Amino acid sequence: MKKFAGQSIIDKLSERFEASKQELTSNSTIADVRQKALNHLVENGLPHAKAEEYKFTNLTKALEKNISFEMNTERVSVSKEDVEKLRIEGLDAYYLTFINGEFNSEFSDEVTESGISFSPLSAAIQENNQLAGKLFDKLSKSTEDAFVAMNSLLANEGTVLEISANSEVSKPVFVQYINTKSSDIHAKNLIEVGANAKVTVIEKVDTLGAEPGFSNIVNEISVATGANAKFYKIENDTDTSYHISNIHVSQDKDSTFTSNTVALNGAMVRNNLDIKLEAEGCEAYMNGLYLLNGKTHVDNHTIVDHMMPNAYSNELYKGIMDDKSRGVFNGKIFVRKDAQKTNAFQSNKNILLTDDATVNTKPQLEIWADDVKCSHGCTTGQLDKDALFYLMARGIKKDRAMAMLLHAFASDVIENLELEPIQAYVEAIITSRLEK
Amino acid sequence: MLSIKNLQARIEEKEILRGINLEVKPGEVHAIMGPNGSGKSTLASVLAGREDYEVTGGEVNFDGKDLLDMDADERAREGVFLAFQYPVEIPGVSTTNFMKTAINQVREHKGEKALDAVSFLKLMKEKMKLVEIDQSLLSRSLNEGFSGGEKKRNEIFQMAMLEPKLAILDETDSGLDIDALRIVSNGVNALKSKDNATIVVTHYQRLLDYIVPDYVHVLYKGRIVKSGGKELALELEEKGYDWIKEEAEAAV
Ligand SMILES: Nc1ncnc2c1ncn2[C@@H]1O[C@H](COP(=O)(O)OP(=O)(O)OP(=O)(O)O)[C@@H](O)[C@H]1O
Ligand SMILES: [Mg+2]
């Protein structure tokens, strides 16, 4: 018998889809995608406890327990102050703010420079925007992940960004999702980076208040020939928030993509990052840092798929687990038969600060080409006792000495973050956690 | 200044120190010698506050305070300094930042004001000259990739920066070339005063030619089995440890 999980959630989602059908299916192309997503969910359900890809992270069970999945029509007012507190201090960016899944123009910046066009997803769908048709459920597919299906079924809002060829966007685009009281939000960002264009996008999801919230965000990012795109994900949500992210990237010839994922708080977070190097000469960088405490559970699943020759990928994920927190890392590297002269590197390092903290780490390399350079390594350990004693033997207090060692451990990932205000934000969190 | 009475310590059920007695007064230099594995580094580590060792008996008084009651960092702030036999490499921690943090925590403890960047750099320059250590070493991560001799020199540089009351040098001479031995010893001597004291752990007379001890003690199987003046070191150099071992075994 086939295992089926999440029936009650799927029932609710179907109801909601029926109730908002008119709005959700106004565009025939998208309507078709949504129907297929629903069919997929109804037939397959959500990941069950033993599902290979979710075996350490039983999101289905957590959602069943904590999230109502009721339609939320209640309007909660959010102040400018609330919104600004959740941004990154000192970071000059185009802020695009969504409250409970709806674009809020009052709190958002106008993106006026040439070479970049922004449209909220709802408007793009209404206007039959070609990009929406091209990317919606295309790179990340409903058939491959039940949460993508859930997103494709309900997401009617998000960010559609088009960077035209040869344009260099002058400052980062900061996509901010704020969830208040509502039980769940589903949003999609569709991003097309034109040939030789350059852009940095930052995404941060926050929940206001102590009630449990669920956010399900999909990014579909197409990076054209010679383009350079950077994507930051800052996860520092409340203790009762559940989050799933699917970032799917396709890279064309000689393009560069950098993903920076920083997970700092939440109840349960699952990040799926999937990068396809579809042409020659691509470079992909994946940096990850997870600094967890309390009962936070963060699962990073990454895939880099080398499909063509002469591409390079480098992945560095580091985690520090305190209290009863749990980290999961699964890094897949595929090197296809055609992908000769591939260079692919992966490293995952973890520090457990208590006996109750855990981490599950698994590299997974599948190589079909013969002329490749691949390396991977994972380590898990405690804070180096000898180093701690050395620092303390010079008069440095224990908390401070620990903070110095943890900063040192995380320093290479933090350096990779490039944007100074984000570095400062992360550094401050390491320090404040230890001085608690 | 330092008074050790019947100190006993063990690690993982293994008795290593079996009743150490030692009195160190301000201005004195004590040398501790003894065969490999006799417990010299253990004594140094226990005095510095390493937690791996379990103190099972005895007491240690430092300047009127119970040393064993303090954590390692507090002992250091009170003025105990251990130059490690094997200094630890700490990638990602810059030597300068480390030194600044340490100095200012020690100063804060003494009720002094934190050093600003300018005075700190001035102090660094002065002490770097004393032990002839190169700026380029200090701009690197702490001890990372340092040669054996460079690590030892860095230990003495740190000691010069922190100006401890009691310095314990654990085989600081091993790994040093002839010039470095002279430089490091001169550094140690320059820091000597009537108010501070030094314990040097060494295997060789050549260090004691430079840093002349007032007392020499021989540690064997976790006890000080013989003490004498500086001539004891010369005698050991000549005769080795066998006669001491025999004397010690006979006494049991
Ligand atoms: N972690 C440990 N577990 C078990 N035995 C230990 C441990 N650490 C030290 N010892 C033992 O304690 C004894 C004393 O070691 P210690 O390092 O103090 O000797 P030492 O006198 O400094 O020797 P050396 O001259 O070689 O530096 C040795 O027999 C050593 O093997
Ligand atoms: Mg030793």
UniProtKB/TrEMBL annotation, chain A:
Pfam families found in the cross-reference section: SUFBD_core, SufBD_N
Residues annotated as domain SUF system FeS cluster assembly SufBD core: 179-409
Top-level taxon in the UniProt lineage: Bacteria
InterPro entries: Fe-S_cluster_assembly_SufBD (IPR055346), SUF_FeS_clus_asmbl_SufBD_core (IPR000825), SUF_FeS_clus_asmbl_SufBD_sf (IPR037284), SUF_FeS_clus_asmbl_SufD (IPR011542), SufBD_N (IPR045595)
Domain SUF system FeS cluster assembly SufBD N-terminal: 13-173
GO BP: iron-sulfur cluster assembly
Family: Belongs to the iron-sulfur cluster assembly SufBD family.
Protein name in the entry: Fe-S cluster assembly protein SufD
Organism field: Roseivirga spongicola
UniProtKB/TrEMBL annotation, chain B:
One Gene Ontology term, aspect cellular component: cytoplasm
ABC transporter domain ranges (all copies): 2-246
Record-level Gene Ontology MF annotations: ATP binding; ATP hydrolysis activity
SUPFAM superfamilies linked to this entry: P-loop containing nucleoside triphosphate hydrolases (SSF52540)
Listed transmembrane segments: none
InterPro entries the record matches: AAA+_ATPase (IPR003593), ABC_transporter-like_ATP-bd (IPR003439), FeS-cluster_ATPase_SufC (IPR010230), P-loop_NTPase (IPR027417)
Gene3D superfamilies recorded: P-loop containing nucleotide triphosphate hydrolases (3.40.50.300)
Annotated keywords: ATP-binding, Nucleotide-binding
One Pfam family this sequence matches: ABC_tran
Family as reported in the entry's similarity comment: Belongs to the ABC transporter superfamily. Ycf16 family.
Stated name of the protein: Fe-S cluster assembly ATPase SufC
GN (gene name): sufC
